[in-house]
Amino acid sequence: GRIKLRLYDAIYGPSADVQRLLAEGPSINRCGDRLTVRGIKLYIDGALGSRGAALLAPYSDAPDTRGLTVNSEATLLPILTQALRRGLQVETHAIGDRGNRIMLDLYEKAFDSVPVKGRPIAAPRWRIEHAQILSPGDIPRFAQLGVIASMQPSHAISDLYFAPSRLGPERLKGAYAWRSLLDTGAIVVAGSDAPVEKGDPLIEFYAAVARRSIDGYADENWHLEQRVSRTRALKMLSSGPAYAAFQENERGSIEVGKIADFTVLSDDIMSIPEADILRARVVMTVIGGEVVYTEPPANH
After folding, report:
1. Strand 148-151 relative to strand 127-130: parallel, antiparallel, unpaired?
2. Can you tell me the distance from the alpha carbon of 97 to that of 138, in angstroms, rounded to the nearest whole number?
3. The overall pTM is greater than 0.85
4. Which candidate among 17, 19, 59, 72 keeps its CA 20 to 30 Å from the CA of 216?
5. How far apart are CA 74 and CA 129, in angstroms?
6. Cβ(163)–Cβ(172) under 8 Å?
7. pLDDT confidence band for 299 (50 / 70 / 90)
8. Please, is 157 exposed, middle or buried when counting C-beta atoms within 10 Å of its C-beta (0-12, 13-18, 19+)?
9. Structural domains of the chain ordered from first start
C-alpha cells in the first residue's frame, strides 16, 4: 500500500534485463494492482535538437548530416519477434522521418513473421514514442498496422524555435502531425516525456489545443491546422493512455464500474479561455478511490 501511483513500466533494451523479460514474460498488476511490467523500450535514433533524429534527407541547417540510427535491424528484429511471441508490448523512440519509417518497416516485418495464432495477444498495441517527424506516406501506416502514436504535445512548443530551421517548410507539414494521424484512424495518445519536459499534463493539454508557446507565440508556418479539440486532447491524455496500457476497461474515464482514478482541477479546462488553461491547478488526486494528494492551503 505504500505505492500511491500506478506504474506501467518498460524495460530498456537491448539489454540483459530485456532478455530476462523475454524469457519470463510480462508481470501484470503486481503490488496491489499498482505495478505492471509488460513493455520493452527501444531506440532507433536521437533527438531533433542535437540533429541526431534520423531524417530521410539532410538537415536544412546542416546539409552534411541526416542524423543517426543507434540500433540495427539485425539487433532489433529478433527482439520484436520474440516480444510478439511472449505477449510483450514494444515502445520505440523514433523522432525523425527516417527513424519512424525504419520502425514501421520493422514492426511490419515482425507482424508478418509471427502469425496471429502464434501470439498470446493478437493485437499487441505496439507504440512509437514521439513520432515527431513523419513522411506523408507513412502517416496512414500507423492505423494500417495498428501502431499507437505515443506523442508529447509539449515538444511542438519547446521545438518551435529551432524545428523550422532544422527541417525546412516542406518537412514541417509532417511534424507533430496529431490531426493528420487522427484523421487516418490512428490511435494517438499523449504523455509528458518527463524529465525531458516538465511533466505537467496541463502543459500537454494546452500544447495540443493551442500549438503555441506558453506566452502565446506560434511561427506563421507552424501548421495550426494540426491542433486538436479540447475533447480530443482530454482523450489523448486519459482514455487513450489507458488503451495503450491494455487498461481501457478499468480506467481512463469516469464511468460506473471503473476504478476511481481521477484528478480534480481548480478550473474547467474544457471551457475557460485558452490562455487560462496554464493557470489551472491540481487540487486533488484520487487513486483507487483513495485521496493521495490535496492542494496545500494557500498562505495568507
Report:
1. parallel
2. 9
3. yes
4. 59
5. 21
6. yes
7. low
8. buried
9. 7-254 (3.20.20.140)
